[in-house]
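Readers outside the structure-tokenisation community will struggle with the description of the input data as it stands. Showing the layout once, in full, would remove most of the difficulty. For illustration, here is how one protein appears when written out as sequence plus structure tokens:
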Amino acid sequence: MYKRQDLKCSNRKAAINVKLVSEAGVGTIAAGVAKAGAEVILISGFDGGTGAAPRNSIHNAGLPWELGIAEAHQCLIMNGLRSRVRIEADSKLMSGRDVAIAALLGAEEFGFGTGPLVAMGCVMMRVCNLDTCPMGICTQNPELRKRFKGKPEYIMNFMRFMAEDLREYMAKLGVRTVDELVGRTDLLKVKAAPAGSRAGEMDLTALLQNPLVENSNVHFNAKDVYNFQLEKTPDMRILMKKFKKSFDSAEPKPSTVTLDVGNTDRAFGTIIGSEITARFGNTLPDDTFHVVCHGYGGQSFGAFIPKGLTLELVGDANDYIGKGLSGGKLVVYPPKDAAFDRSENIVIGNVALYGATGGTAFINGVAGERFCVRNSGATAVVEGVGDHGCEYMTGGTVVVLGQTGKNFAAGMTGGIAYVLDENWDFYQRVNKETVSLEPVEHKYDVATLKELIREHVELTGSPRGKEILDDFSEFLPKFKKVLPYDYDHMLRVIASMEERGLDGEQAQIEAFYAVQKNK
């Protein structure tokens, strides 16, 4: 539920689309996501796709989309939810007949992938994951991309032919609109099959004539869409009004708003962040919009916030703070009169900065589990983390000024972490499969670490950070640099390419192919 709330806040005009695999029981799942606010439910069958998946998955995973569409449509009707959502059929729809059958079983939207790809020149080599596409479609290789001959007109023609084919089937069935087709299983007939054959033993009664569904011609009604009541959020009630003058200006001046928040305020800051992105893009300087919050941050506090927006929280926060952070700044610290030791008490919940792509976060206290999981570009300073910190991290920088939980850096393939190891036992809690532990000795690392701690102290007033800065030469040998093997190797290759005179982007491309060639 709360994840769909985050998505809706990040783009109020977009419909939330949930993709489900066609499997037994998909109707129950469809009913659940419809109750939680999904507006489109996409049912994907076993067919179609690029074929880049393992062969046993291609042949054995999933069921035909026909079964999933029928079950989802019927289950939603029985639960009184069908008019809330659109059902989309997806999985190698190659003709108007396929589209007509999908509509008759309950779908009203249709996804096309294989057909348009072939129209653009795809020859189905099934090597999309290898960056060797011979037609220049699915590759980043500049030489291979020169082979791409596709044009938008090819897909336009394909879609026109699909529409024409569908129109002919609709004329034969005597219906004028797609809405009239939806759920009309009475227009479907089972092909006769030879007696004794496997096809002849199939019973499709439940698919075509469910006795529990009196009227299967039920489709989406915009009036029944789930209401997230976004107008009641602090973003809409307070922030949008307070910052109105700044939004109306081409070059907004720095402004600050102070307010109280509670843990029921989910995705706080996300709506105002989406408006900033829509109006100013990524052009604003840091701290242009500054929000000071007192209280308890709810789920997904500061999710997806962009550059130019700073959220300062005096208190603590729930799970998923800073999810998808996209250039904004988060500052969290307890009230100044707090009696507890900040470096030993949790102030933010689990999975903070999940999937962050940019921005900064300074946390004066300990974070829960899975801190910075899948971080790919954000910079964070925290005073301790729970289990699985920096899991699957691919970029960015993390500084931990305290203890970590077990399994730190599991699956970490990029980015750098600096961890204070006062008890010299950090190596016992690191997952060493993909990373190495090194002392912080290089002048660039030392300067980066010291500057991040200095900024942390300046923004949060951290006593722990101040203690480290005051005796930095004593604490420096106790820091460990966590560096992924492959990331380190790639950085070295990129540096060698730049020494040959290549610019940044070209050096990265050449380094990638050099590493691939030597594998």
